Task: structure prediction
Amino acid sequence: MSVSDLKERHAVATETVNNLRDRLRQRRLQLLDTDVARYSAAQGRTPVSFGATDLVCCRTLQGHTGKVYSLDWTSERNRIVSASQDGRLIVWNALTSQKTHAIKLPCAWVMTCAFSPNGQSVACGGLDSVCSIFSLSSTADKDGTVPVSRMLSGHKGYVSCCQYVPNEDAHLITSSGDQTCILWDVTTGLKTSVFGGEFQSGHTADVLSVSISGSNPNSFISGSCDSTARLWDSRAASRAVRTFHGHEGDVNTVKFFPDGNRFGTGSDDGTCRLYDIRTGHQLQVYQPHGDGENVPVTSIAFSVSGRLLFAGYASNNTCYVWDTLLGEVVLDLGLQQDSHKNRISCLGLSADGSALCTGSWDSNLKIWAFGGHRRVI
Amino acid sequence: MSAPSGGGGGGGGAGHGGGEVSSSALAPSSLPPPRPKSPPEYPDLYGKRREAARVQMLEREIGFLEGEIKFVEGVQPASRCCKEVSDFVVANSDPMIPAQRKSRRSCRFWKWLCGPCLSLVSFCCCCQSKCSCHLKKPKCCSCTSCSCIGSKCCDGSCCSSICCCPRPSCSCFRGCCCSCPDLSCCIPKCFRSCSCARPSCLSKKKSSCCSCNCKIRWSSCFRCPKVRLCSCCFCNCKNLCSNPCCLAF
Result:
């Protein structure tokens, strides 16, 4: 077949793809008979209401000397690992605020960090395109340098996000600026599967975030600069199970909903959205009111019941707490006493859901929890 | 005199038998100028294969989309999913959500951490069983004359007839609370807060308020992350990716 024949086929196929996508979008719109907010309002759900002292900053973790980009809680014992522009990972005891480890990284441009399920290792990645694993039982030298116990090399672009597979210390998933996600075997340092890429059906731009389902660790979601989120089955890497459209800008962050059948996203278009993984429906859009340009969402987390969605924005120290059922902002952590002084870049909930940790460009981490009892007069 | 034919039997002397090239019977001007052969046209196999691969990907995508359309035909409407979400949320308790006001259970083991927050000397304003506590006595704490949004008691130290500003150093700007030291930076997004940014930064045009510090140069070539347009930021990935600060760094 000649090149000109191929080009003609290419044009025809492109038009067919566009027509089919349009048909799919129309059909999905017909199935969107309501959204979560309208449904819940019709059910008469009581709005969540926060008093001034209900959610307070209980701890400020100081020690980084640069912007905090990423944080992760252990699955137990309430430790936090954070990654910063200062080129260090710090492991904190969240209860005492003490630092248990301060690891100087070989590459200062770190973008993500994660705790292993057993809490004995931390992983990080960034502009060096490598995911590095550090054992917390290794001894640091006087500079705080801990030897890398494993380097996961293979991405052709920066590592934007990493997460261990729940309950599997030997496997983790990374997302990358090379448009792929990779499932790694940490014990061998080798790739198990590559999701997406040049000749596979996958993201068509940088992948910025991953979230693995807690209830089904074979499923994970990725969010990308191509404005979509994709659901993957780690056992079948050839193509995404489903692609979720709707956002009008980069999808910066994705997080599974606690029931494992839904997930949330945060985007440059200023909205957070809730999607259903089994049907592909977009169930809710969380869009702040007001005029002016949309402020990108940097990070999200759900409370354990899913009733609250915490969302950090790339503006000031805004961190909205959304009532996910009624689609309204119920609190702005940026307006609370002792709030961050700069953008909130990352956040995460403790394993038992009692505390939220936020990381900020002001170089601090803060822990938020209930203000205790309140006397009613 | 006929022009020599190409290839084998050329008339005249050129390349013929013993090569009496110097035959004076043939004047040089009657010979055609030498014409070197053009290089053969090799087919652009690489480009053709790439094009074929792209077509194959599109045709595969067509298959996926047709499968997805068929799948969607049998999918339940969104209302059923919304019900599942609502039922799940309501069925699960949440330590982050205020329970009953009167009998508050301890917030698991974080309670002991947060208890001291309220043991500080503080002033409480209460209005119809809602209380808020402040480190400083707020100017406008008055349950009967509180004019703040949502009829809540003022929870900060600044109050005007238009709004309650929760930050000590804030001011009311166009009906919104703005925490910017420079009022000209306030953008009146009046939903409980203002964003503090000059409009030109948000519109991604060159702006003096972008503050990228490009002193650090990294010696290996990165593929730079998504770029934020900013007057002093650039990514040059020839040999030096000199400014990772392009990505929100």
Notes: The CA atoms of residues 21 and 115 of chain A lie 39 Å apart. Residues 373-377 of chain A have pLDDT under 50 and may be disordered. The helical segments of chain A are 3-31, 36-42. Chain A touches chain B through 110 residues (CB under 8 Å).
